[in-house]
Every structure is written in C-alpha cells, then in structure tokens.
Task: inverse folding
C-alpha cells in the first residue's frame, strides 16, 4: 500500500462519507509576523472534508488548532496555499466577499456560547436568517427556527432568555443558531470547555445525531474521548497534520 497522506485520507473517508467535497485546503500555511518574531503557526496543511464527514482536530496547546479553525471559518486568511469551500476558491476574497461566504456557508460553535442575553431563544436562533441575503419571510423563519430547535431538543424553550437556561441548554441553542442557515459545515471549537461532564456529553450526543442525519462537522477538542466520537481524527503538531505514525515520520523529515 502506498502510504501517502492523501491515500490515507481518501481511503478512510470513502468508508464513512459521501464523495462530495465540502472543504479543500491545499498547502495552507500561516505565518504570524511581529516586529521581532515570525511564528509559523501552520505549514503544508492538506485537508479535504466531505459531505457528511465528522472530523476532529486535536493536539497540544499552541499547535495551531485555533488558527486552522479561524482560516476554515474565513475569520483569518492563510499566508500561503489555496482554500476552497464547496468549490469556490476563497483564498483571495475581499473582506466583504469573505463575510458573505462566511454568513451563508459556515456555522460556528464556540466554547463560550455567544448568545445575546436580551433576545429570546427563538430570536437568537433566528438572527442569522434575519441577516441572510436570501431574505426569508417570517413564516419561513418560524418554520426553520422551530425545525432547528427540535433537532437539538430545545423546542420547549423558545420564549426563554439564555440566562434562564443551563450551560448545556445554551450550547444546544448555539448549535441550533449555527445550523439555521443550512451551512456547508459546522466549525466547532472546544464545545464542552465551559460545561460539566454530563452537559458536555449531551452536547456531544447532539453533534453526533446531527452528523448521523448528514451535517458536516469539523471540531477542535483536546478531550481524547470526544475526539474519538468523530469519524476521522486529525492530530496537529507544530502546525502540521500527522496522518499516522508512519506517515508522520516521513512528513516530519520532509519539512
Ligand atoms: P492552539 O489553538 O492549538 O493552542 P493557536 O492556533 O492559538 O494554537 O496558535 C498557534 C501558534 O501561533 C502559537 O505559537 C501561537 O502563539 C501563535 N499565534 C496565534 N495567533 C497569533 C497572533 N495573532 N499573532 C502571533 N502569533 C500567534
Ligand atoms: Mg486554541
């Protein structure tokens, strides 16, 4: 067997997911430059994420996880390489164009739930639709918000304010909000970091159920138990992806 990174990735993925490519990164690098310091946060990142995929990214603090997720979510741009979302080359977009693609194609879930305290659960989840360029009407918004609240098991709490809910419930609302505009992919950064283990487990179950129904997920976690719940586990070290111990040795020697 030719044990290249690409073969390893595609053979693993073909067992688990459809072949439509949602996300493709080619030779992505990110260098942060300050007056005195150059930090090579990411190097030679080749990453393909398919429709229905569930990828976890883990690795030690400082290895580049958040930087990779920021670039995946168009919150930051790479210094080298090419990045495609649903076939669109997003590497050289203007800020406005990037924001448009981000709003329509990316759903974010963060460690801190980032809900708006003054708005009801319903209005928090509806927010991305109200800013959507597709301009759905009120009936369409209501239908879609209720669908998404149902998917995360929170349709009985539409009128509550976020601070009337537990942390786990708030994270489920944040997941509904991330889903509502039907993004190409959910990007998830340490979703259980602010939760006790029982609530954390419930949030992970919601993500697993969504993935079983077809939602594409890429999640950063440092918890090996949660990383194992994904269909594919990627490990980052010093800004590079380790595919397997054998490929790792070659990859590191080549850098
Ligand atoms: P992780 O999320 O895995 O802990 P990060 O992606 O946050 O790692 O950081 C990767 C590397 O890039 C680290 O060495 C970090 O110090 C550096 N880094 C991250 N963001 C910046 C920035 N804005 N300016 C300079 N260096 C940064
Ligand atoms: Mg981080």
Result:
């Amino acid at each position: 067997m030719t044990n290249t990174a690409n073969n390893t990735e595609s053979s693993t993925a073909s067992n688990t997911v459809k072949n439509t490519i949602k996300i493709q990164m080619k030779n992505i690098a990110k260098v942060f430059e300050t007056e005195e310091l150059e930090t090579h946060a990411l190097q030679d990142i080749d990453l393909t994420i398919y429709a229905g995929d569930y990828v976890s990214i883990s690795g030690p603090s400082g290895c580049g996880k958040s930087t990779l997720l920021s670039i995946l979510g168009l919150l930051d741009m790479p210094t080298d390489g090419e990045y495609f979302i649903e076939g669109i080359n997003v590497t050289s977009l203007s800020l406005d164009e990037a924001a448009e693609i981000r709003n329509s194609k990316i759903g974010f879930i963060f460690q801190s739930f980032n809900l708006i305290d003054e708005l009801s659960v319903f209005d928090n989840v509806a927010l991305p639709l109200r800013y959507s360029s597709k301009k759905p009407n009120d009936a369409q918004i209501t239908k879609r918000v209720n669908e998404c609240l149902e998917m995360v098991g929170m349709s009985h709490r539409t009128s509550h304010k976020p601070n009337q809910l537990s942390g786990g419930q708030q994270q489920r609302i944040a997941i509904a909000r991330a889903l509502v505009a039907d993004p190409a992919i959910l990007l998830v950064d340490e979703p259980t970091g602010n939760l006790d283990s029982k609530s954390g487990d419930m949030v992970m179950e919601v993500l697993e159920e969504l993935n079983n129904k077809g939602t594409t997920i890429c999640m950063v976690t440092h918890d090996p138990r949660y990383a194992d719940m994904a269909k594919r586990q990627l490990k980052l070290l010093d800004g590079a992806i380790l595919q397997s111990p054998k490929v790792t040795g070659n990859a590191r020697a080549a850098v």
In short: Residues 25 and 47 are 5 Å apart (CA to CA). Residues 32, 39, 41, 61-67 surround adenosine-5'-diphosphate (ligand 1) (CB under 6 Å). The beta strands are 21-33, 38-50, 54-58, 80-85, 88-89, 106-109, 185-189, 217-220, 232-237, 240-242. Residues 1-17, 245-255 have pLDDT under 50 and may be disordered.
